[in-house]
């Protein structure tokens, strides 16, 4: 990179050749004065000559082939001023900066000429050191030229960081970069911060964030996007550089209430482009997600943003929330006499509403097999239900005489966490997970599902057909569908809304995935895969994640249309046209899901009949 343009050569001064690095040189002429070179550095093709003069001199660097294109940076030298009894040292120091190849740098001398006429001269060849300055005195003598020196180092390397920390801010306006910080938030518990803003700069200029401790945070890994407002404002000045001006970046180590700066370094030194204060990011993952997702990003770009910004921040918050789950006390009760050795544990999470429980118990109580062989477990996953459900369970048990257990784990754990908690208290070798709004349409619905597990060791999970209240299909297996306009794979129910007579699957069928609204599997396989994954935000994709875990073990996922339940779930999560926050939650989970299962989710699994 050429830092300087060539200047017209000057005739070599015809003067004695003093060693200005060895002793102070007295300049001959009307005004006189002293000249001294403290140190000379050669770093690659960059030459830096540091010194001071009390004379009014024009200075240059000359090689044997002529003068070099050099830039002079003025430095305040109070030490020189004090020595010579001056009140201030402004402008007494100088740094000459030039580029030179090995041949030019072999014999470079300092030349000078009095500004108001008089003597001119040239020194003996200077002796250049090849190591960066390290002492306080050497660094202070460089002054604003430290920014130029920093540009010779790899950005954010230890040497660069040290130089940037010591360099003073430039008094000149920055012409090579523009930027603004629009907001920042940090979580003190996880030490994660998010900074939002925009910045544009010319090639060769380095921009970064800096916190109150002086730590630098590069923008090289920031999520960048086009900002029409920024492009309209500075596009004419910065051209193509303004195309991806907007940024959202994760910065480790920020704290709520602290300051963060957007800085730039160019040939004129170091500049502060903008500054903002960090708000406190909520420790609750949902609250933090609301803050993050409020930062405007087109839906079509969320699949790029989530891995760079959102998941690295929300993932640790989710893990932190869950880190105490195993230590929390459990509350619960067994009503009636559960089977001593149940064939299956039926686990039903409860959240938000409990009015469907009675409808389930009505159907269960009409099923002799269920009464004799099933262990029914309701998992309360909503603290608002604690005041009402225990009394309701007592009342319903007296009415329908169906044994049951309920358990509460002290906190809301979400769908996956509630299911895992149910397994902790379950005793059967086979597990059946059931939504509270799913109801069997006839007695004896569980044995056919368990028979599939008993007779097909290669099947890891099996689920029935689910219909809406109007009798149309809600679930006849799931597949993965690519939404190209959003850049994500989503779960798709291909036959939703059709009459069951149009279901193409006549018998037990291998499919890519099934819903978790009613899913049966062996406990041993459940434990092999580590249970339900609790890393998704709020919900979505947990059931397909469970299926993919089983498929990763070489097991099949099966659909059994001979068993049918009614499911009152809303018809689908539509990615577009819903609440903006909910839409972004779905996209967040979709990106996490496809990242976890890259290479498996995009492999087609053709429906295949399995032997009954």
From TrEMBL:
Gene3D superfamilies: Spore Coat Polysaccharide Biosynthesis Protein SpsA, Chain A. Signal peptide: none annotated. InterPro entries: Glyco_trans_2-like, Nucleotide-diphossugar_trans. Pfam families: Glycos_transf_2. Residues 1-21 are annotated as: Disordered. Residues 1-19 have a biased composition (Low complexity). Transmembrane segments: none annotated. Residues 345-479 form the Glycosyltransferase 2-like domain. This is Glycosyltransferase family 2 protein. It comes from Aquariibacter lacus.
């Amino acid at each position: 990179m050429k830092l300087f343009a060539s200047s017209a050569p000057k005739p070599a001064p015809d003067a004695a050749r003093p060693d200005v690095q060895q002793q102070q040189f007295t300049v001959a002429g009307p005004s006189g004065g002293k000249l001294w070179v403290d140190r000379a550095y050669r770093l690659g093709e960059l030459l830096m000559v540091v010194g001071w003069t009390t004379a009014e001199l024009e200075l240059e660097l000359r090689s044997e082939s002529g003068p070099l294109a050099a830039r002079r940076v003025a430095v305040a030298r109070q030490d020189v001023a004090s020595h010579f009894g001056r009140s201030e040292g402004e402008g007494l120091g100088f740094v000459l900066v030039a580029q030179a190849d090995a041949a030019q740098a072999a014999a470079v001398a300092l030349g000078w000429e009095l500004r108001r006429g008089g003597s001119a001269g040239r020194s003996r060849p200077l002796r250049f050191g090849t190591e960066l300055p390290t002492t306080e005195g050497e660094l202070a003598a460089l002054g604003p030229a430290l920014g130029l020196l920093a540009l010779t180092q790899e950005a954010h390397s230890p040497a660069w960081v040290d130089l940037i920390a010591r360099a003073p801010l430039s008094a000149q306006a920055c012409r090579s970069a523009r930027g603004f910080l629009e907001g920042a938030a940090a979580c003190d518990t996880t030490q994660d911060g998010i900074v939002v803003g925009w910045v544009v700069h010319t090639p060769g200029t380095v921009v970064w964030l800096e916190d109150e401790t002086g730590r630098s945070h590069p923008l090289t890994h920031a999520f960048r996007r086009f900002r029409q407002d920024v492009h309209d404002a500075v596009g004419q000045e910065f051209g193509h550089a303004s195309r991806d001006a907007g940024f959202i970046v994760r910065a480790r180590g920020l704290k709520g209430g602290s300051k963060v700066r957007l800085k730039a370094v160019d040939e004129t030194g170091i500049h502060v482009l903008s500054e903002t204060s960090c708000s406190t990011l909520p420790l609750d993952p949902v609250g933090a997600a609301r803050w993050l997702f409020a930062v405007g990003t087109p839906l079509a770009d969320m699949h790029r943003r989530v891995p760079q910004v959102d998941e690295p921040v929300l993932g640790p918050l989710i893990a932190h929330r869950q880190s105490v789950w195993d230590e929390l006390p459990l509350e619960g009760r067994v009503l009636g006499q559960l089977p001593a050795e149940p064939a299956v544990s039926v686990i039903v999470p409860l959240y938000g509403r409990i009015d469907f429980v009675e409808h389930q118990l009505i159907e269960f109580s009409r099923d002799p097999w269920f009464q004799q062989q099933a262990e029914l477990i309701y998992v309360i996953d909503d603290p608002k239900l604690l005041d009402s459900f225990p009394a309701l369970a007592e009342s319903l048990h007296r009415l329908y005489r169906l044994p049951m257990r309920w358990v509460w784990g002290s906190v809301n754990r979400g769908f996956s966490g509630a299911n895992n908690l149910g397994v902790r208290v379950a005793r059967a070798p086979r597990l059946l997970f059931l939504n509270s709004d799913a109801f069997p349409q006839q007695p004896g619905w569980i044995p056919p599902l368990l028979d599939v597990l008993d007779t097909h060791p290669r099947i890891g999970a099996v689920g029935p057909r689910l219909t809406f209240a109007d009798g149309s299909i809600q679930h006849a297996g799931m597949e993965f569908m690519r939404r190209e306009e959003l850049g994500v794979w989503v779960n798709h129910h291909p036959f939703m809304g059709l009459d069951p007579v149009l279901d193409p699957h006549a018998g037990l069928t291998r499919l890519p995935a099934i819903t978790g609204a009613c899913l049966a599997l062996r406990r041993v396989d459940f434990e092999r895969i580590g249970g339900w994954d609790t890393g998704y935000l709020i919900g979505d994709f947990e059931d397909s994640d469970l299926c993919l875990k089983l498929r990763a073990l070489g097991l099949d996922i099966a659909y059994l249309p001979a068993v049918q339940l009614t499911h009152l779930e809303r018809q689908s999560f539509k990615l577009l046209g819903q609440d903006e926050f909910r839409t972004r939650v779905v996209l967040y989970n979709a990106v996490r899901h496809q990242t976890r299962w890259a290479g498996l989710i995009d492999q087609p699994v053709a429906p295949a009949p399995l032997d009954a």
